[in-house]
Structure of Prepilin-type N-terminal cleavage/methylation domain-containing protein:
Amino acid sequence: MKTPFLNRKSKGFTLIELLVVIAIILTLAGIAMTVVNGVMEKSKVTTARSDCNGLQTAVENYMLDNGRVPVAWSSREMTKQAHKDGQYYVTTAVDDDSRIMSILTNYMDRADEDRKLNPKKTAYFNTTTTDVEGAPGLFFESRGRVGLMDPWESPYYIILNANPDDRTPRVQVGSRMVTKNVAVYSTGKDKQGSTADGHINNPELTEDNVTSW
């Protein structure tokens, strides 16, 4: 009796073949994930740069309209907050006592005394909003406070010229002199390299910083 001919095509994959296929799939998945992560990171950098430039423009427009920096500090507090022999101020885009984001977005309660700091009721700044405090984007609290976090969930740093009437606009960011009345930056993915952590002049920690200049 003849042994029936077995068509090789009808056989299943061997264990080695399956392992090879799985290895190829995992390699392709790893490559795809790397590409996706790279695209997402570039998107975050683009968002951060847009926010930095938007904040800079908002502050400059506010200064043009009101002839002062958009902060709620008293004269004494402004003197106390001034850095580098009174040349500039440093604050963040998370509402503290400076109220800078409330002023720039015109988000203040009617009874808020600081409403007079935006007499034209102009919303100088707007961007993507979030309902989660501390998440990336613009967050509006019910108490009239506003915060803006970068895509890596850190605050933006804002440096303001304390003397905006000077003929030569300038602010100092660490050892760098920026010839503008305002400079804005994000500490980027590593969340390091700011005036707050003292590493603003460390090139290794500021390499991924995103700036408005």
